[in-house]
From TrEMBL:
SMART domains hit by this protein: Tryp_SPc
Region (Disordered): 29-101
Species of provenance: Heterocephalus glaber (Naked mole rat)
Subcellular location: Secreted
Membrane spanning residue stretches: none
Role according to the record: Has a major role in enamel formation. Required during the maturation stage of tooth development for clearance of enamel proteins and normal structural patterning of the crystalline matrix.
Any one of the GO BP annotations: extracellular matrix disassembly
PANTHER family, per the entry: KALLIKREIN-4 (PTHR24271:SF65), KALLIKREIN-RELATED (PTHR24271)
Pfam families: Trypsin
Ranges for domain Peptidase S1: 99-320
Protein name as annotated: Kallikrein-4
């Protein structure tokens, strides 16, 4: 979802990844998707991967990653001073500017929300589904990163009840990106189990698949409607979109591992920086933020979420055997 201005094509798909830059740090952007969807009526979706029409990342730090990665022995903590250095740009948020027409979440009302951090920067979100396991989008995988739990206000130094942990394993779904954009999930095993508290708690993965009209809530620290980045975790209520709308809007890339939500006239949506974050429906984790159209929040253009009900067996088996 990161496209250069003036692109003549009406729709380009992109992953919802954008780093939150700490002062004094070079901005980091996770690699853009290598697949491009062209408008209907033009050339069909091609197997060749391209990045030139998307914001390039020539110095990407994500190398070819195997299905399971363990960090290098003795790797230093990414946040030596706790989370005090993790701050969105000054002035990026102001009252009334919410993530595509959402609002500040009540503090720690989403205690399963995780932040994936690289060099003191937020680059993706995740979801605590077990005291030692976090789910996120597979396209968020980096060679080295940290996981923040119990966070709400990224502008607060040493937020009470928060933890920053290193991952022990990062395990992508074996069919990720086969076909392109499909099966976008990974499991992250933390180096230690985290005890439940008022600020940190896991959520169960839905075994029931989503139904059109289901009321859901998506949360994250991604782009706001005004283009800024928030300090506080943002929440927005959206509904599951009809499957036929999802398959039509994303015709060339639609896959059974996906479902859509949002796209209504209220322009509520997830956006850049929310990747891997939770979509909670009926008090269960129904989906993970995956991809969408640009700009975010356009009526008739719902965003795509990983359909977790299709992966309950893989999730349980992987956590049990890894």
């Amino acid at each position: 979802m990161m496209v250069t201005a003036g692109n003549p094509w009406g729709w380009l798909l992109g992953y919802l990844v954008l780093g939150v830059t700490a002062p004094g740090h070079t901005p980091f952007r996770a690699p853009p998707p290598e697949a491009l969807a062209t408008p209907r009526g033009h050339a069909p979706f091609g197997a060749q991967r391209r990045t030139t029409s998307l914001n390039p990342c020539p110095t990407s730090r994500r190398g070819p990653a195997p299905d399971a990665l363990a960090p290098s022995p003795g790797a230093p903590s990414r946040l030596p001073g706790g989370i005090s250095a993790l701050r969105p740009p000054a002035g990026s948020s102001h009252p009334g500017s919410h993530i595509i027409n959402g609002e500040d979440c009540a503090p720690h009302s989403q205690p399963w929300q995780a932040a994936l951090l690289l060099d003191n920067e937020l680059f993706c979100s995740g979801v605590l589904v077990h005291p030692q396991w976090v789910l996120s989008a597979a396209h968020c995988l980096l060679d080295s990163y940290s996981v923040g739990l119990g966070l709400h206000n990224l502008g607060t130094s040493h937020e009470p009840g928060s933890r920053v942990l290193e991952p022990l394993l990062s395990i992508r779904h074996p069919e990720y990106d086969n076909p392109a954009f499909a099966n976008d999930l990974m499991l992250i095993k933390l180096k230690e189990a985290v005890p439940e508290s008022s600020t940190i708690r896991s959520i169960s993965v839905a075994s029931r698949c989503p139904v059109e009209g289901d009321a859901c809530l998506v949360s994250g620290w991604g782009r706001l409607a005004n283009g800024g980045l928030p300090s506080r975790l943002q929440c927005v209520n959206i509904s599951v979109a009809p499957q036929e709308v999802c398959s039509e809007v994303y015709d060339s890339v639609y896959h059974y591992s996906m479902f859509c939500a949002g796209g209504g006239p209220n322009r509520r949506d997830s956006c850049h920086g929310d990747s891997g974050g939770p979509l909670v429906c009926n008090r269960s984790l129904q989906g993970l933020v995956s991809l969408g159209h640009i700009p975010c929040g356009q009526p008739g253009s719902p965003s795509v979420y990983t359909n977790l009900c299709k992966f309950t067996d893989w999730i349980q088996q992987t956590m049990h055997t890894s």
